[in-house]
Amino acid sequence: MDATTPAVLTLALPATPDEARGLCHAVRALVEGTGTGVVVCDIGALGQPGLGVVDLLARLQLAARRAGGRIRLRGPGPDLTALLDLVGLRFEVEGETDEREPAPGVQEAVEPGDPAV
C-alpha cells in the first residue's frame, strides 16, 4: 500500500460491543498509519441493514474523524443508503463523486448566451 491508496477494512455483523470498540481502534490506527487519512469500509457482507449497522458506522466515522480522517463506504445497498438518509447520516461512498468536486464534464458556471434550462 502506498500513500495514495486508502486502507480497506471489511465489516461483517453481528458486531458485539467489544468488537465495535476493536474496530474503532483499528480505524484510528489505519487513519494515523496511512498518508490518505481515509479508510474504506467494505460493507458488502453486512447483510440486511438495521440500527446496529447505523450505530457501528457512526462510531467508526467518529473514530476516524477524531484521528483526523474519515471513512468511505464500499458496497452499501439501497436499503442502507435510505436508512442512513433517514437518520441524517451522510457518508462518502466509493465510486460516487465527492460533493465538493464537480462531476467530470459538468460545467460549473453559466456562459453568456447559454440557453436557459
N/C terminus separation: 45 Å
Class per helix and strand makeup: alpha/beta
Strand order across the biggest sheet?
1-2-3-4
The protein's oligomeric status is: single chain
**Radius of gyration, taken over Cα atoms and rounded to an integer in Å:** 17 Å
Written as H for each helix and E for each strand, in order along the chain, the element string is EHEHEHE
Number of continuous helical runs: 3
Uncertain segments of ≥5 residues (pLDDT<50)?
A: none
Instruction: Work out the number of β strands.
Output: 4
Overall pLDDT confidence: 83
The fraction of residues in strands falls at 5-15%
**What percent of the residues sit in helical stretches (DSSP H or I)?**
25-40%
Biggest sheet features: 4 strands, parallel
- What best-fitting shape do the alpha-carbon axes yield? globular
Question: Can you give keywords for this protein?
Answer:
alpha/beta, 4-stranded parallel β-sheet, 4 strands
